DNA sequence: GCCGTTTTCGGCCCGACTGTTTTCAGTCG
């Protein structure tokens, strides 16, 4: 079964871009952009639906449905081919230059025949842009600098893992400025997208000037891109743009909604506001007739004024969440407060753990967890693994610590290694001594899809394997992971009663939100696991929760939302059924 | 091109900032 949505979405996005370059009506362009996003986010493979069913999806009408059918039948779309023939091949890359939009791209092409960034560079150097309307010396200089930055990075987005610490640092510095009531990072980072294009920091204060100055003068900033009374944009040391917006405290909720996005979500709720005789902007919800202010201090207040339940940030992608919130059928997604324990964590008993067992346990307890599974590496991982003897010694140590930490339940587990044949470390009797195990692939990534899939499914049939760790092995921005049929893993997880991990490390987020959604729909049980190697890593659980929210997972799908008896019952059920 | 608490046509989100515009267009988010 081919999964064609992503491919289709990119074709429609291309149509939208090409239409812009032909000067098409902007609403028509927006319709294609919406169609692309609706296709990309559809929870079912459009290859399996009839044209009538496809046209029922929000944002997809008759015309788009016809083009989808055409693409399925012929492998292409005539309109797209015509546009490709009309627009010069390099023209779309002009739109990737910050500050250069469709109007300027068309102007450059019509007046100077420019249809690519290299041609633009040459024309700038030769002074051929002089005298064109709207392209004075400042604009030309901005274009030169934008072209230089464009050459320095491959694409504009970086893994969220690379932006989080900088965002947190910026937030903390802004929060420390006198007069600041609240500070948060927003944008795609708050929605927990896997990659982000910039960092958005929002501050509530009645005195914006010192906050703006604190950012401009920061040692984290290499260039100020724009500086106004309400908004400042800078380029940071890591080449990532950061936008700062300061609002009054009573505007905080409205600004947080606006700055968190997504853009498509904002457009959707503003349309809803207009239909109800209201105006929504970053300062609040207002009555259109009287101008009276109706909401703005909190996000919940803003959504309520629009007749909506509060929508968790990861769901704000205009993929049906607004309609669901209006009809009271928003999924009650898992929250950090729902987590009672953590099922994957390391100590310095493993070669790669950085903190001692007592420290890790105390840190888990301090974060409000009721139980914590110690899962150091098993012996087959030669560098970091523990022998049987060391494992038994650790178990004895845990026994002692249980008396010292009466309000934290300690589970003794292990992170097992899945061999190429699907076997795991130790023998069945030894494995039966663990309270819980997670089994992961750590070696031989470059095997075929069939081998990898068979390997993991075989491990799932082991009665002592409770969960599969980081099921695809990817590291965002570093490596794609091994080739594996995740749909088959999900089916086997349901069949065998094995849990699938949502590894909460921002570098992994594995399973991804898209796979979480499909696993939840298939009825699988998931874990949200920190995979902590240090005390601070325990805070990564929140990124796992946000990923689970993006995948619309509710607490009943998440193993670590159960109390410890519930967890033990899950482990026992699988052992009894398959032993 | 899509869509309907204004329902099959006439609308389609809203504001900040920049530069070159002497009142606003273009771009961005």
Which descriptors apply to this entry?
alpha/beta; 5-stranded mixed sheet; single chain; DNA-binding; globular; 579 residues; 7-stranded parallel sheet; 17 strands
What share of residues is helical? 40-55%
End-to-end separation in angstroms reads: 34 Å
Largest sheet: spatial strand order: 11-12-13-14-15-16-17
Uncertain stretches: none
> What is the number of strand segments?
17
Most strands sheet: 7 strands, parallel
Alpha plus pi helix count: 24
Mean pLDDT: 91
Strand composition percent: 5-15%
Radius of gyration: 26 Å
Describe the secondary-structure layout:
Layout: H1 5-21, H2 26-41, H3 51-55, H4 62-74, H5 78-86, H6 91-94, H7 102-112, H8 117-125, H9 137-152, E1 158-159, H10 160-175, E2 180-185, H11 187-190, E3 195-196, E4 198-205, H12 208-216, E5 221-227, E6 231-236, E7 241-247, H13 252-260, H14 263-275, E8 278-281, E9 284-287, E10 293-295, H15 299-305, H16 321-326, E11 341-342, H17 357-366, E12 371-377, H18 388-404, E13 409-417, H19 428-431, E14 436-440, H20 449-460, E15 467-468, H21 486-496, E16 499-503, H22 513-522, E17 526-529, H23 541-550, H24 564-578
Parallel strand pairs: 4-7, 11-12, 12-13, 13-14, 14-15, 15-16, 16-17
Antiparallel strand pairs: 1-3, 2-4, 5-6, 6-7, 8-9, 9-10
Helix pairs in contact: 1-2, 1-5, 13-15, 20-21, 21-22, 22-23
This protein binds one DNA strand of 29 nucleotides through residues 25-32, 34-35, 58-64, 98-104, 133-139, 142, 187, 198, 200, 226-231, 233, 243, 245, 258-259, 261, 263, 266-271, 273-276, 279-283.
